[in-house]
Design brief:
19 strands, six-stranded mixed beta sheet
Length: 434
């Protein structure tokens, strides 16, 4: 399902581009044949009148199996055709045909997503009705016909004629990727967060999120994760990279209170207990042993130093917190402008809960500073004394290296100054007022 959610976003993007520019798409002839097969199979599925039942059966309905079989065969044929080279021939898909095709594909993916959530998951204390998107399914062939051929190892080959679907416990990657589809829907985002919070994916003791729910009773056919003890490595541990992906989606979905509650509650390194974590809070780990591990003294300890994925996700969070999603924008005249719209809680300015006093400017306003492009000091002046969640600035003061200043009224910095900031041309600091 994570791949399906990414496919949904890719289709939406390509559809938006084709719709905007109204240009035909030129593709290899071999790919064109596969596309034609997919479209024919989808037309046949739609014309069959198939609709999902309220309660989905374990056996894959024959209409869906036929569609899968046709599309899977088309994909395998395409791979065989281009295994060594392309013919060099091309085919053209008009903009109108591409829009219709991509729309049908996108709609079918959404139906599939709803179907997957309805099928659900199954595990310890999980009856499959949580509404949390599953990550994985298995399929067992229930009917087949031998082809009278053999594989390279001498084993008999067969063609599948029917199959049944198997379900697994929840994995954090499912809802994390799914949130990309609902990032603009505040109610759905908050609902999904609450479902995950109250599911088997939450390590209540550590206030973090398991990579997977309890895998007790799963077959070794599930993969190598079953070789590890619960709470260790790929079996119900805390994967920092995946957890940070989840936190990032909360921030992208504008669940600011929830995001900072998770951060301050110990879910992210700056607020973890270093004695429990067992290493510097400036160093990410591949995984953290969860409270599911048999030795409670190890719970919360980070293992295998790793500075790749988790660090990248943290930098993405930092960017959204301090600069907003689009620090540089193109105006209606096609010119670049700059806007800084942070998402900072008041406790990062001054934390009344812990008694940590903040820094104030000459006028008594709370301030927070950071470095833009590692060289330009940016200072936020919070005269409101509140959270700065998507609050637009009222003015800017841009100070140049020679001591001169540029005063800007309003929420955006105009083109000339914005380009100097972007190109690091003589800009010393920026003061932003709210």
């Amino acid at each position: 399902m994570p791949e399906t959610f990414e496919l949904s976003e890719l289709l939406k993007y390509v559809l938006s581009v084709v719709t905007k520019y109204q240009r035909p798409i030129v593709i290899p002839a071999e790919l064109g044949e596969m596309v034609d097969s997919i479209n024919d199979a989808l037309d046949e599925l739609v014309s069959s009148g198939y609709k999902d039942a309220k309660v989905l059966p374990t056996d894959v309905p024959k209409e869906l199996f036929k569609y899968w079989d046709t599309v899977a065969s088309a994909r395998e044929n395409y791979r065989n055709d281009v295994q060594y080279y392309f013919s060099g021939n091309t085919t053209k898909i008009s903009a109108d045909d591409a829009i219709e095709m991509l729309t049908n594909w996108y709609d079918q993916v959404q139906i599939g997503v709803k179907r997957a959530i309805k099928i659900g998951s199954k595990g310890i204390d999980d009856d499959g009705k949580s509404g949390i998107p599953p990550s994985y399914f298995s399929y067992n062939i229930t009917e087949w016909v031998r082809t009278k051929k053999k594989s390279a190892k001498g084993l008999p080959l067969a063609n599948a004629k029917a199959m049944s679907v198997g379900v697994f416990p929840l994995f954090l990657e499912g809802p994390t990727r799914y949130m990309k589809l609902i990032v603009d829907d505040d109610e759905k985002m908050e609902d999904m967060y609450n479902k995950v919070l109250n599911s088997g994916l939450r390590d209540d003791k550590l206030k973090m999120y398991f990579l997977s729910a309890d895998l007790t009773g799963q077959s070794y056919d599930m993969g190598r994760m079953m070789a590890f003890a619960a709470g260790w490595l790929e079996n119900q541990s805390i994967w920092m990279h995946m957890s940070y992906k989840y936190y990032l989606q909360l921030l992208r979905g504008k669940l600011y209170d929830q995001f900072y509650s998770e951060m301050k509650g110990g879910g992210m390194l700056p607020f973890m207990d270093p004695d429990v974590y067992g290493r510097s809070l400036l160093e990410c780990s591949s995984f953290i042993a969860s409270s599911a591990f048999s030795d409670p003294s190890v719970a919360g300890r980070g293992f295998l130093a790793r500075l790749s994925g988790s660090t990248a996700e943290f930098l993405s969070m930092w960017k959204l917190m301090f600069m907003g999603p689009n620090p540089f924008v193109v105006n209606d005249d096609g010119e670049v402008e700059m806007q800084l719209i942070p998402a900072l809680p008041i406790w990062l300015f001054e934390d009344a809960e812990t008694g940590a006093e903040g820094t104030r400017d000459d006028e008594g306003n709370l301030i927070v500073s950071f470095k833009l492009f590692a060289s330009i000091k940016v200072t936020y002046h919070n005269s409101l004394g509140t959270d700065l969640y998507e609050v637009s600035p009222t003015s800017y003061t841009v100070t140049m290296d020679d001591g001169s200043t540029v005063e800007v009224e309003g929420s955006t910095i105009p083109t000339e100054t914005a380009l100097k900031i972007r190109k690091l041309l003589g800009v010393d600091s920026i003061d932003v007022y709210f």
